[in-house]
Structures are given as C-alpha cells and as structure tokens.
Write a structure and sequence with these properties.
Elements lengths: L2 H14 L3 H11 L4 H12 L4 E4 L6 H11 L4 E5 L6 H5 E6 L4 E6 L6 E5 L6 H4 L1 H8 L1 E4 L2 E4 L5 E6 L12 H4 L4 E4 L5 H11 L14 H13 L4 H13 L24 E3 L3 H17 L7 H12 L4 E2 L1 H5 L4 H11 L4
Helix pairs in contact: 2-3, 2-4, 3-12, 10-12, 11-12, 11-13, 12-13, 13-15
Length: 340
C-alpha cells in the first residue's frame, strides 16, 4: 500500500473510530480499575469474537457487560450455568399451542447482543456445546428451523479458578471458539477505593447512558478489515503461532533463522491451531482501529498474543511439574523471536 493511500485510510479510520473515546469514558464512569478489560471487550466486539474470563467472584463482570450493552443501546442477557441446566434453557425450545394446535418457538436467553455465560464450566458438556453453533455460526437450530442471532453478538463466559468441585472442563473445540481468554486480578488499592466510594450505597442503581449505537460496531468491523498489515507483521504472527508447535517441526521463516526454541518440545503437548493465527491477525487490526491507527505495529501483536494463545496451548506433564504456565511459555517465545 502506498504512503498516500495509508494517509487517506488514516483520516477515514480516525473518523470511523471517533465513537470509541466517548464509549470508553461512559463505561469508565460506571466501572473503575478495569480499563484493560474494558478495552478487550470493545476489541472483541469490533473483531467479531468472544471472550473467556477467568477471575474470582466479585470483580464486576456482570456489571461490565451490562454497562457495555447500555452504552451501546443493545440487549443484555445473563445465563447462570448450573449442573441441571438443559440446552433448551440456553437456546430456547418449541412450544405446542393447544388452542390452535400449532408449534411456536420460544427464544432462549442467548438471543441478545451481549450474553454473559456465568460459570460456564458448571454445566455439562451438552449444555456448553449448545453455545458452539451460536458462537461460531451466529445462528441456532430449534425444531429444525434456523434462527439468526442479533448483530453484533458477543458471548462473555466466565470461569471461577478457585472452586473446581462439580465442574466440567470446557472441551478444546469450544475453548478454541473464544478469541481471548482473559485473567482478571484484583484491582489496585486506589481503584478499589473508587469502587467502594461509588458502590457503597443502599439502593444504588447505576445505569450507563447510550453514547453509541450497535451500527457503530458493525460499521467498525468493516473498517477493521481495511486496516493495513505489512507482510513482515503477518510473518511475525506466523512465527509466533508455529513456534507453539515444536513437536511438529519449526517451520520458521528465514528471518528467524538461528532462533533456538528446542526447549519447548518438552513443554508443549499441543500447540495453537491456524484459528489462533487468524484471531491474532484480526485482533491486531482491531487494536489498531481502537487506537485510531490505519496500520498494525508489532506491539499490537505482542500485547495481544498472551490473551489469544493462553487457552490454545496444552502443556505437557513436565511443564506442569515445573510449575510453568501457558503465559510463561508464550513470554519465552516472544522473548526469543525477533520483532520486525
């Protein structure tokens, strides 16, 4: 792409992304100390992806997704996953009407713009898999009929990392459907002080004002596709993803010759799939759009790689015995590979 074309694209993307600033401000008026999480939710929205969130209870996950829906004038739905939940409780069911002897479809709570799947690992696999078609195809099939999900459509699923009794680990096929897996920690002291000052009131009902429209999100997705990505950035993404597959041979580009990642062969059992590379490329473009840029920089890729890859790596028993995590393996890869 020529310099003149990039400059013209920069002007258009600056205009198209103007709604992001007031949206962040309005969400931040309700939320405090979760700026990084807010950005990831917005990034998932404009990148047409979904989020898997791991964090202890009480970190305002429900408030966040509800606030984003209010700020966008969209619909919000919360599904509490429990062991006795049925797939029909999620997607809906067909109901027989005795008066006119016909069947009608009652849509489930998944039919909303932003869906919070709370403690998704509490429900058995058949319920978890009910979300697969919704998330991947943006449609569900009820009694043989296909029903489209509202657009934009985002699923934010949560897992409690503390209590694992009576839980059902998510199948790899479903985990791979999530663009990001985020780990949410406690806020800082100052942020928590702000939270207490805002929330420590009886009968408090904070509500965000609508400062953007759902059409802004769908329009942003078209501009995300137009963000320029240099071929060197694309090769860098390939290097990162392929480096997670040491047992299948390091098909690294000539630019990475001499890089030693042999020690990973004993740490990673299964690496990231091609879907990870696609997600990382789209997310990097989305990050550039959020910052009003018409082009991707290497830092976009490096900052997003842990969130895109951590749930797609299956570590070996040796790695677990050494107390290593997916994050430490990804950090090692990013440290070793040369940045364009």
């Amino acid at each position: 792409m020529r310099q003149e074309e990039i400059q013209e694209l920069q002007y258009k993307i600056s205009e198209a992304s103007a709604f992001i600033r007031p949206l962040r401000t309005e969400i931040g008026r309700i939320m405090a100390g979760q700026e990084a999480l807010i950005d990831r939710v917005l990034l998932a929205l404009i990148s047409n992806g979904h989020l898997l969130l791991e964090g202890v209870p009480g970190l305002a996950k429900t408030l966040l997704i509800k606030t984003v829906a209010q700020a966008l004038d969209g619909t919000f739905s919360r599904i509490q996953f429990t062991p006795d939940l049925l797939p029909s409780d999620v997607i809906g069911t067909s109901i027989y009407n005795q008066n006119d002897h016909t069947f009608s479809v009652k849509e489930g709570p998944v039919f909303a713009n932003l869906v919070l799947a709370d403690e998704i690992n509490r429900a058995p696999s058949k319920v978890q898999s009910a979300l697969l078609e919704c998330m991947q195809e943006h449609q569900v099939t009820i009694a043989g009929e296909t029903h489209k999900m509202p657009e934009p459509f985002l699923v934010l699923a949560t897992q409690n990392p503390i209590e694992q009794e009576g839980t059902y680990p998510l199948p790899e096929a479903q985990v791979d459907r999530f663009m990001f897996k985020l780990k949410v920690d406690y806020p800082s002291r100052e942020a928590e002080r702000t939270v207490i000052e805002r929330m420590a009131h009886t009968g408090l009902n904070l509500k965000a004002y609508s400062v953007a429209k759902l059409a802004d999100i769908t329009g942003a997705r078209e501009w995300v596709d137009k963000v320029y990505m240099d071929e060197k950035i694309l090769e860098y993404i390939l290097d990162i993803v392929i480096a997670t597959r040491p047992k299948h041979g390091l098909d690294m580009s000539s630019r990475q010759n001499g890089v030693k990642l042999d020690d990973l062969s004993e740490l990673i059992q299964f690496g990231a799939s091609p879907r990870a590379g696609i997600a990382l490329a789209i997310a990097a473009k989305g990050q550039a759009f959020l910052e009003g840029r018409a082009y991707v920089i290497p830092q976009d890729v490096k900052s997003l790689a842990p969130d895109v890859l951590r749930h797609r790596l299956v570590l070996s028993y040796e790695a677990e015995a050494e107390g290593m995590s997916a994050d430490s393996v990804i950090a090692h890869i990013l440290d070793q590979l040369r940045t364009p």
